[in-house]
Write a structure and sequence with these properties.
The chain is mainly beta. Helices cover 14% and strands 45% of the residues. It is built from one helix and nine strands, in the order H-E-E-E-E-E-E-E-E-E. Strand 2 and strand 3 form a beta hairpin. It is elongated. 25% of the residues are buried.
């Protein structure tokens, strides 16, 4: 009985400490983080792996209104790892302003390694973000496409 209790306490302490360490990661200057209400599902280029689950978020700072940092991240890590190459095309639905940006990073085991597009000159208003992600690994897979809207202040 004592061995189970000790193991249970050790597992709980490990879980809490891991969660506390991961909570501090991200962009420290962000006043708010807003996420598009969409997850972009697609195959991993490893096939026998967790699926790709792209998420769109905007970090907004009071000091720089209308200049969000857009983050694209896979909500799931990969068992084997692969290269992710997201491209975003954004349109401010209030002003018509638009632009595009591309980036690259590695999705790995225990890590989703987001791609950041800092200080995009979107202006305030509803922002439609069209995401196309090409994930590269041992097996060619189709690009993942989706869109979401985030209110930029």
């Amino acid at each position: 009985m004592k061995v189970r209790t000790i193991i249970g306490v050790a597992v709980a302490v490990f879980g809490v400490s891991t969660g506390a360490l991961s909570m501090g990661m991200g962009t420290a200057a962000a006043d708010t983080v807003d996420r598009a209400d969409v997850i972009c599902w697609g195959l991993s280029p490893n096939i026998v792996d967790l699926p790709y689950a792209g998420r769109i978020a905007a970090y907004q700072r009071d000091a720089t209104p209308g200049l969000p940092t857009i983050e694209i991240t896979s909500a799931q890590p990969s068992i084997w790892g692969y290269q992710t190459n997201p491209t975003i095309r954004w349109t401010n639905l209030a002003t018509g302003a638009s632009g595009a940006a591309s980036g690259s990073n590695r999705v790995g085991f225990g890590s989703t390694n987001p791609v950041f597009f800092p200080d995009l000159p979107t202006g305030a208003g509803p922002l439609r973000v069209d995401l196309t992600t090409v994930n590269v690994g041992p097996v060619p897979v189709p690009a993942v496409n989706c869109s979401g809207v985030i209110d930029i202040r």
